[in-house]
Amino acid sequence: MGTSERQSAGSRKVGGFAALYLALAYIAAFPYYLVVVDYQGATTAAEKVALVIGNYPSMYAMYVASYMVFGIALAVLAFALHDRLQVHAPTAARLATAVALLWSAALVATGMIYTYGMTTIVALAKTDPAQAIAAWLGIEPVALGLGSAGGEFLGGLWVLLVSWVALRSGLLPKALGWLGVAVGMAGLVSVMPPLKDATYAFGLLQIVWFAWVGVVLLRTKAPASEHASVPLNAVPVASE
């Protein structure tokens, strides 16, 4: 096996494990946020601050795992998929990777804002509970905006682009490609307020998509064309 083949195999393996982590992070985060803490059920800032103070250690750890580490794993997967798809559609692959990196950065920033914000209000609540509530009113909207609370635009666009290239090229299973189209569309329509609940469909379907992508990357060999060295500024192929 040549150097390029070893590098390609290593990229697929790391990307496969990253995808499986993303699926597991979703599986852990859904019941934690919706059932264990039930943060969505809190209707006032005072209730939210009380939940943060009462669950600070576990919430801190969950935000690190489901936002900060999640964002890094997402970038790793994005590069692995770029390596697999770039030969067939270099322009679309670069665009998809750029969107994924924007999403990754937003998620990491969300986790950093939440963790530092929680630490701040927990300390502040000991001396000035009213000020802690006021501080959370300023912290939460920023974190929610970065964390796609207004709709999964970046995540939906990335999955849709990757799936479109995969369907055209045949470099991923066709059924996986169509599942990705469904995931991507659910993410994109969720930005419209009447359809905001589509974020739940996006998250649930993406668990399956991430897990499936992980298995594909770990168990299948890349086509020979993937081993070719294609620079990021390559001229798009005629089919694009």
Describe this structure in words.
With 240 residues, the protein is an all-alpha fold. It has one domain. Helix 1 runs antiparallel to helix 8 and helix 4 packs antiparallel against helix 6. It is elongated, with a radius of gyration of 20 Å.
SSE layout and pairing:
Layout: H1 3-36, H2 45-54, H3 56-85, H4 90-125, H5 129-146, H6 153-169, H7 174-189, H8 198-219
Q: Between the first and last Cα atoms, what is the distance in angstroms? A: 31 Å
Average pLDDT reading: 89
For the secondary structure, the number of strands is: 0
Overall shape: it is elongated
Q: What's a concise summary of this model?
A:
This protein has 240 residues and is an all-alpha fold. 76% of the residues lie in helices and 0% in strands.
Question: What labels describe this entry?
Answer:
240 residues, mainly alpha, 0% strand
